[in-house]
Amino acid sequence: MSTDEIRARTRALEGAGLRTFGTDDPIVWERTQGARVWDADGNAYLEMNGGFAAASVGFCHPRVTAAIVKQAGVMTHCPSAAPSQVRADFYERLIGIAPGPLTRVIPAITGSQATEIAVALARATTGRREVIAFSGGYVGRSPGSVAFAGKPSYRAPLGVPAGGQFLPYPDPYRSQWALGADPGEAALALLDHYLDDAGSGVEKPACLLLEPVQGNGGAVVPSDVFLQGLRERCDRHGILLVFDEIQCGFGRTGRMWACEHAGVVPDLMTVGKGIGGGLPVSAVLGRESAMGAWSPDAVSSTFLTNALGFAAAIAAIDVLLEEQLVARAAALGDRALGRLRAGLADVPYVGDVRGRGLLIGIELVESRETLEPARDRTRAVIRRMRERGVIVGHSGRNMNVVKLSPPLVTEDADWDRVIDDLVEVIATATEGSAS
To answer: Where in the chain are the domains?
Structure first.
């Protein structure tokens, strides 16, 4: 069946709200393998958005597929009230790659659910309600998680009000609010006001919730000093530090976990996306002291401990380790950042090239002086890359960032081609087109 026919069938039946028809002609996925996607008309694409950063070990990795097939012949569904070997194996594998102090697991299905669990657990542990989150943050789109999103546009369609207090995320490029001060230090000073000033109007929080590297916010990397300062203040005030590593974790930034760059371990950490090897698997990892507040049956969902997902996740973790994909992400990312910065240095509407490992953002602006977001130019670059057979991401708090979050198994020649194409397309982009 053709691309047009599948689009028409889908459009005729799908309810409003999904991202499917955010463009008139979405790519109709038919088949995937490694870092490639084929559409229903047989066209091949290099998928450098990684299925929204979920294809860390690649699409349809043979070992993951084999594990799914084997498990499907034994047991697919196992309720959370019943232990199973595959569940114990998953826990052990996951704790085996977790930062040392994180020794307990609560399973989840989606990243949004993991966020909901982490916030609820922080509140139960501390006996407090308040949550401090950060501008530009993306911690899920379910009603229970989007309350902590750093973009009101995520909350508005669902009618969900903000669920906490928000502080500026210290973006090294876009932090005019810091008035010339170091953004990380300025953000910590604002946090000190929240916590120390009896007249701040803010209750002492149960937790601070943030991504140690923002993904959908545009591959924003804060200073190590900022993350270290958060840890110190959480310790001093008895607040739980919650890191969302669903997108930036599992090797993507060139370390197993993004927080390792700053040498900071949170109290709770949400993980997901790439861990499932293509199936919906997520979890909350935590310190012993932060994981004991609940009695049995406080958390439940029919498919919370799905055996098929756990089998896929075990295989994905093994692939990540045995194929040394964390080191690969670091090497490919360093090479790409160097080439992008050199190739785009003289392009006046390239405001910033940033990232860590294989989480890279190129922020486009109308002027380097005003930093006005170049949204149309960004859309044009993404369209032109698609015309060249390359799928790249679209992100940033102003939707003016071209994002790369490819499978960590992307081959060297393919990666070099993508970087060459990006430099050429961005350097020749004009408003409304990218010819």
So the answer is: 62-322, 325-399+422-435
Both structure tokens of 227 = 């993350």
Residue 265 to residue 227: CA distance in whole angstroms: 10
| CATH class of residue range 62-322 | alpha beta
Structure pTM?
0.96
Tokens describing residue 393: 């991401």
Pairing of strands 36-39, 104-108: unpaired
Q: SS3 of 73, please?
A: coil
Alpha carbons 266 and 152: distance in angstroms, whole number: 26
Among 299, 320, 325, 255, smallest CA distance to 94 is for: 320
pLDDT tens-place string over residues 218-250 = 999 999 999 999 999 999 999 999 999 999 999
Among 113, 44, 100, smallest CA distance to 270 is for 113
Taking only the tens place, the pLDDT of each residue in 246-298 is 999 999 999 999 999 999 999 999 999 999 999 999 999 999 999 999 999 99
Pairing type for strands 36-39 and 29-33 reads: antiparallel
Q: Compute the distance between CA of residue 321 and CA of residue 255 in angstroms, rounded to an integer.
A: 12
CB 104 within 8 A of CB 291: yes
- The answer to whether 299 touches 274, Cβ cutoff 8 Å, is no
In CATH terms, the fold of domain 325-399+422-435 is Aspartate Aminotransferase, domain 1 (3.90.1150)
Please state, in angstroms and rounded to a whole number, the distance separating the CA atoms of residues 116 and 300. Answer: 12
